[in-house]
Amino acid sequence: xxxEQMTTxxxxxxxxxxxxGRQIGNVLMEMKNITLRFGGVVAISDISFDIRExxxxxxxxxxxxxxxxxxxxxxxxxxxxxxxxWFRGSKRPQMKPYQVAxxxxxxxxxxxxxxxxxxxxxNIMTGRMTRMKTNMLQQxxxxxxxxxxxxxxxxxxxxxxxxxxxxxIRKTPVGRLPYGLQKRVELGRALAAEPxxxxxxxxxxxMNVEEKEDMSRFILDVNDEFGTTIALIEHDMGVVMDxxxxxxxxxxxxxxxxxxxxxxxxxxEVIDAYLGVEHD
Amino acid sequence: MSDNLIxxxxxxxxxxxxxxxxxxxxxxFVLIYKASGIFNxxxxxxxxxxxxxxxGIEKGQVPFSHLINAVLGTEVHHFGWHLHSFLxxxxxxxxxxxxxxAVQQVIFKHLVGQEPIILFxxxxxxxxxxxxxxxxxxxxxxxxxxxxLTSNLCMPQGINEAIxxxxxxxxGYGFFIDNLDITATIVAMVLVAxxxxxxxxxxxxxAMRAVADDHQAALSVGISLNFIWVLVWSVAxxxxxxxxxxxxxxxxxxxxxxxxxxxxxxVLMLGGFTSIPGAIVGGLIIGVGEKLFEFAIxxxxxxxxxxxxxxxxxxxxxxxxxxxLFGEKxxxxx
Lengths: 280, 334
Prior knowledge:
Protein name (chain B): Branched-chain amino acid ABC transporter permease
Membrane topology (chain B): Multi-pass membrane protein
Oligomer: heterodimer
Distance between the termini of chain B: 58 Å
Number of helices of chain A: 11
Shape of chain A: globular
Subcellular location (chain B): Cell membrane
CATH class of the largest domain in chain A: Alpha Beta
Number of helices of chain B: 14
Pfam families (chain B): BPD_transp_2
Number of domains of chain B: 1
GO molecular function (chain B): transmembrane transporter activity
Number of domains of chain A: 2
Strand content of chain B: under 5%
């Protein structure tokens, strides 16, 4: 791989503190030369980038650029045709999505994948799944530890409910909630796993301005308060530029830019491919 | 009180008891259908298989003895022990879990994402395969199932006599209720309460509901679909065992037992394919309905209405309320 492709010039290579006082650490996850083909269609072509501890990393690009495919590779829903995913300094073997989740990645979906028949509380509770340690028999018999554990997890979930300001809908089946709130519940479920990396697939898609502002605030707060590393996909450029520390720009499955929002904004190729399109 | 009314009450009561048995079978269908979208035609055969295995283990029968004897020229039939009922039930549960695991690994793991009709065909294949295995394993003769649960051994003696007495004092007419029916009702209630508690308050139960709701989302929170499906088939196997015990105790363990699956179909159409309470209420309605219908209308049309009443009722439901009493209403967003 070319050196130029891997480095981001706008930020120090060593751990550093951002202007607003957040701690950015070392590389947590690294995508190395990822290629994804569906038959003859190349969805992702030889893309490399990294995600550092504590940062908000955005992947942007026009429709069909391969952003969602990339997120699906990261979360194990797609197996890359070529290339490697490195996590915490070691190569990740081929894993099922649920194993990736157990390893510490939580994600949301572009088209919301919630358990529609279950209440908000239960939905977020499923997010704790990977954190529950008691075995099946103890669970079935509701033996001592299982009961205590359930209580602890309930507490953690209540904190998240408070944090996301959704107390009023705790018992409501999520299928009945409006779109914006469903997105918030889905974020809550992902948060409940206390993930090492939180993957958000178009968290702002289809929202009105007010909902977008709310969501942006929650994303920033999550990153700030819990120090959660966040990788998100968006095609609302404005939002992304305000939120993220570093941005990967994709177009037709290729990476055409990688850097701080300012760098990306001034990158000629990015401007040509994505920003340069006049709509009015 | 008029004799007819009292008689109708007794018929209703007996209908409720029969309905419990229908509900038990329907429950197995609902569990699997909810979690995996598979309509398990083999549920009835699973009940048969479970009951036969139970009897076989309890009586110390050597599995596949005909086959073994034919191949090796030996003459083994029995291990020569007689297990305690509860021990035999425990072993049978283990066998049913093994069956669940095998069904998932050998068949349905490879059919993920296939059309419902293909999954359904697979369960038909499974039904006939399992019937054959049951025959080969335990032989085809009708067996008596008198385990502790269903005989008077464990039931307090004379509950039905007490009921007979009390009702005689109240109405001047003694109700007769079979001891077995009382046991079945109690067992069914405990079973349903346990299932509800399991699905509401445990990690695996929640995972089961999650998988039933959305596969992708379930994967994303770290749930292994394969494991949950094995679990669901195990639970369905356990429910089949309970149903098999009750039906087997009532009419003997024989191959016609697998046909009770057909009686569960109208129950499911009434209750909805995805609702556990629906399966129970549906079972009770069919049970009571067919007994009362036979009692009231039967004599006018020459009897034997129990054979068709349930299906006609189900047809009416299909016309007027296709999603069943408790089924999820299908609303397509356009």
